[in-house]
Amino acid sequence: MNIQLVRHSTLFIQYAGQKLLVDPMLSPAGAMAAVPNTANTLSNPLVNLKINITELLEADAILLTHTHRDHFDGVAAELLRKDIAFLCQPQDVEKIRSQGFQQVTPIEYEFEWNGIRITRTTGQHGIGEIGRLMGPVSGYVLQAPNEPTLYIAGDTIWCEDVAQALTKYQPDVTVVFAGGAEFLQGGPITMTSEDIRQVCLHSPNTRVVVAHMETWNHCFLKRPELRAFVEMHQLQDQVCIPEDGEYFH
């Protein structure tokens, strides 16, 4: 397994001989409007890609957690080849097909793709009314012979769904989407520093990799702050906070 953090939640994963592109958001900096009703009005994304898009378009499949524009944008929809294998949650099938993609496969629970078992997990994209408004989101567990078990939690806070997935699949590596994204009302809709600490406490044997940082206007948790928190709680041997473009294992 080899994983590259492209930017935000976009990951380029080489796993069991296949190349998977997770949550492709390929717009240049400032190309999209700010998320409204937040304490920051900067246009999105906040930073440019550090990777040549051509490399990402060589992926064998797309694995999509949900269709919010910071996870799947118009540039990706335009540039990706229309016959690429597109794996997603059932709720998003029609929206993706409406953009011309021909091989869209919903993963209700578990799907075998080119020797990789992909199991869909659930989460909470916030709590209460804000969580309801954000809609359904998914995560995925990847398993294959001679490969570590990888859990991509998706846009979720720490909750029972995540705890159950960690307990059931005992992943070697867990990618969490952090940034502590929030609106002017309601609580965080992605993981905070404390959420990440809870993941570590629950599953001390999983390597926690933190993505979804410093790219979107309502993500206020920054890498330096999170690194300081991780060191304060002596979690630096378990938690990896990669920069955009960085590889991790």
Automatic annotation (TrEMBL):
SUPFAM superfamilies reported for this sequence: Metallo-hydrolase/oxidoreductase
Coiled coil: none
UniProt xrefs under InterPro entries: Metallo-B-lactamas, RibonucZ/Hydroxyglut_hydro, UPF0173_UPF0282_UlaG_hydrolase
Superkingdom of this protein's organism: Bacteria
Keyword list, A-Z: Hydrolase
Catalytic activity: 3',5'-cyclic CMP + H2O = CMP + H(+); 3',5'-cyclic UMP + H2O = UMP + H(+)
GO molecular function: hydrolase activity
Name by which UniProt lists this protein: MBL fold metallo-hydrolase
